[in-house]
Design a protein that fits this description.
The protein is α+β, with helices and mostly antiparallel strands. The protein has helices spanning 32-42, 47-54; strands spanning 3-9, 21-26, 30-31, 60-64, 67-68, 79-80, 85-90.
Length: 98
Amino acid sequence: MITIVKIKLLGHTKSFTGSAELEIVLAEPKSLKQFLAELSEKYPKLRVVVEEVLTFHGEYLLLLNDIDVGVYGDLDKVVIRDGDTLTVVPIVHGGAGS
């Protein structure tokens, strides 16, 4: 069974792949953690995003079908399915100047 996953890259993360959207075709369903590891191998600039998502720290929010992946806990138990959409959202920090 072929699985097609759409990836949306917002803000400056578009520059990590050269595109705002990707479609990845998988020969079989995979865990989200495995999928992210393979994605970072294919697109090395996404490695920083994957590392921060896996440690629940950092500058990026990852949404699976518009839900923060942090709510799922163990990403090895989350299976990527045909038609799923992953969205990478850079978190913007700022503050008032003096």
